[in-house]
Amino acid sequence: MSEKAARCLSGMFQRISIAINAGKDHLSELDGAIGDADHGITMSLGFMAVNAELTKLDLAQALPSEIFAVAASAFLDAVGASTGPLYATGFRRASQALKSDESLSPACQAMIVDEMRAGIQQRGKGQRGDKTMLDAWIPAAEAAINASARELAVAGMWNAILEAAEAGANSTSSMVAARGRAARLGERSLGHIDPGAASAVIILRAMRDAFVEARLNNS
């Protein structure tokens, strides 16, 4: 089981990298309105580095917790900006949590989303409404926990997660930034979707696709 799980997560990170790379120009364009216009580039570099390190692993022997541990280190090494430590902490939290459940069951998948949220929030000290990636990650995690408690099937759970994340990201256009570089703009940050929230949606969509496909292949 651990080999299947490790291959699923490795494939998930590949999907994330491909999706982020495809959307990097749009993400940097969003960032250009309220930041340094480099969010897409840094996220793309980060996930390419993750995949480069994962290719060195023997997936026949690796555990899911190891996949996230490697991702944390690789992302942090590649991305020196504030996003690096945020996602590295999220991946590290997921890795630690997975040590008690390496199954990648629906409940385990919900736990991954919530632990990533917890790590990002722990490191960034932010909250919902600050106009950051947490405006996507917090509702996504709430949807994950709720779906898990209701014992929804994998597809239903991930669709709920993604719907919540998308709504959260879209809501940032009506917010005034309270954290990060965008906070310096004050009212001028209104009317723009936060690039970190937008990239979070891309990540969560790729995660959904990976887990739903893995479920179909195993059914």
TrEMBL record:
Report the domain of life of the source organism.
Bacteria
Record keywords, A-Z = Kinase, Transferase
This protein's GO cellular component annotations are: cytosol
Tell me which InterPro entries the record gives: DhaK_L_YcgS, DhaL_dom, DhaL_dom_sf, Dihydroxyacetone_Kinase
Which GO molecular function terms does the record list? glycerone kinase activity
The residues covered by the DhaL domain are 7-209
Recorded hits in Gene3D superfamilies, A to Z, give: 1.25.40.340
Any one GO BP annotation for this protein: glycerol catabolic process
Q: What is this protein called?
A: Dihydroxyacetone kinase, C-terminal domain
Which source organism does the UniProt entry give?
Answer: Rhizobium lusitanum
